[in-house]
Amino acid sequence: MKVMNQCLPPPNVKVMSCIFDRIFSAFRYFAGNSPHQMDLFLYLLEMDLTYRPEIRAQPLPDDPWFYSCIGFQNHVPDNPQAQTDAYAPLNHFLQAYNLHISYQENLDFPALVLELIKSFQENKVTILLIDQFYNRHSSYYHKMQNANHALLIKGMDTQQQQITICDKKDISYSFEEVKDMMTGGIIQLSCLDDKGFFQATPNYPVIYQNSKQKLNLLETIAPFFQEIEQTMRQESKIAFYAKAYYMSTLYQLIPFVTARDILFQNLKIPEKFQNAATASRAKWEEFSYWLAKISILKRLSYDQLTHRTSELFAMEQQFCQLPDKIPPVV
Questions:
Q1: Separation CA 254–CA 312 (nearest Å)
Q2: Which of 3, 81, 119, 224 places its Cα 20 to 30 Å from the Cα of 50?
Q3: Of 141, 160, 191, which residue is a domain's last?
Q4: One domain, residues 7 and 65
Q5: What is the C-alpha separation between 32 and 83, in angstroms, rounded?
Q6: pLDDT means per 10 residues in the chain (330 residues)?
Q7: What is the phi/psi pair of residue 102, to 5°?
Q8: DSSP assignment of 114-153, as one string?
Q9: In a domain, 174, yes or no
Q10: What is the DSSP letter of 45?
Q11: Residues 24, 36 contacting (CB under 8 angstroms)
Q12: Contact 147, 155 (CB under 8 A)
């Protein structure tokens, strides 16, 4: 058997975690050219984006990626041992689009091959959970054990005994390589029936009402900025912290403000809030680029840092007085 899903988009949204990034790719695959292909961002508004003070009490990890002091607290398990019922809230969201997510664990390699054959026949998208210690294409290869990661399966050739992974560029692995790095878990996204992806228009006013208390990020970013202004004074660790904050901003904060912007552009809400949501998104993106630059230069102007954080804080204050109710879009 030789099969390749040429329509599968690469995981390039940069949202939350490697697992959710791949789930987003699967969602976009089923959505195709639908105007709703980015609706999964709205699911982020069901979660709590919080500051994690406990991270500072732990020893600094070798990799800044593992120092994430901002993160989503619920609904999407970033854990290869997560049970199917942990995905229940996400499944509830996906049902509106006629989609379903499932999780299997404790698969051995022969069972994985059979499951992949079945998944291609049934037009399912499969995400393979691995340990990067055994992934020759990973920077963690033979360096860090239990470095959990997720790979998006694009194709398979049983005659050549290869499995193709969809990433920035397609990568082919031998069966033996996959067998070595798999942890036994897979996540699959599929349509609930043969009716395909539903062009479901989200109920934006209801989403607004349910997430209104979360749309103001001041409680999250106030301690975040306080930490940044303290740790970035440590010249010997500027590169580490700048990269850690860059990734927290890129993968956690920016996806949230993107979701907020998408929501506001689809509401009958005063234009000043729509403009503020778009401007805030742009400023957070600018802040992430600046942090990335600092991580390379390994130096910064402290005055410039406080100016940027003060500016972002002031922008978020605009969302303190949001309307109580929003009329439905006719």
A1: 12
A2: 81
A3: 191
A4: yes
A5: 29
A6: 86 89 95 91 93 87 88 63 68 93 92 94 94 84 81 93 90 94 93 86 90 92 94 89 95 96 92 94 96 91 91 92 73
A7: -140, 160
A8: HHHHHHHHTT-EEEEEEEGGG-TTSTTTTT-TT-EEEEEE
A9: yes
A10: G
A11: no
A12: no
Q: Are residues 132 and 240 in the same domain?
A: no
Please tell me the distance from the alpha carbon of residue 155 to that of residue 152, in angstroms, as a whole number: 9
Q: Give the global pTM.
A: 0.90
Residue 148 belongs to some domain of the structure: yes
CB neighbours of 166 closer than 8 A, spacing ≥ 6?
5, 8, 9, 10, 11, 25, 152, 153, 154
Asked if 32 and 82 touch (Cβ cutoff 8 Å), the reply is no
Distance (Å, rounded) from C-alpha 79 to C-alpha 62?
A: 20
Helix (H, G, I), strand (E, B) or coil at 286: helix
Task: Categorise residue 142: left if φ over 0, alpha if ψ from -120 to 50, beta otherwise.
Answer: left
| 164, two tokens | 């193709």
Residue with tokens 């979701």: 259
Instruction: Give residue 296's domain range.
Output: 204-319
Please state, in angstroms and rounded to a whole number, the distance separating the CA atoms of residues 45 and 258: 10
Same domain, 160 and 22: yes
> Do 8 and 75 fall into the same domain?
yes
Answer yes or no: do 115 and 211 share one domain.
Answer: no
Three-state DSSP at 280 gives: helix
Domain count, the chain: 2
- Of the candidates 147, 25, 20, the one whose C-alpha atom is nearest the C-alpha of residue 76 is 20
Cβ atoms 77, 124 nearer than 8 A: no
Reduce the DSSP state of residue 103 to 3 states and report it.
strand
Q: Are 74 and 244 in contact (CB under 8 A)?
A: no
Domain boundary among 191, 219, 253: 191
Task: Report yes or no on 328 lying in a domain.
Answer: no
Is the sign of the CA dihedral 198, 28, 165, 254 positive or negative? negative
Q: Which residue do the tokens 């990626």 mark?
A: 65
**What's the pLDDT at 65?**
86
User: Is the domain of 187 the same as that of 234?
Assistant: no
CA dist 150 and 131 (Å) reads 9
Tracing tokens 């089923």 back to the chain, one arrives at: 30
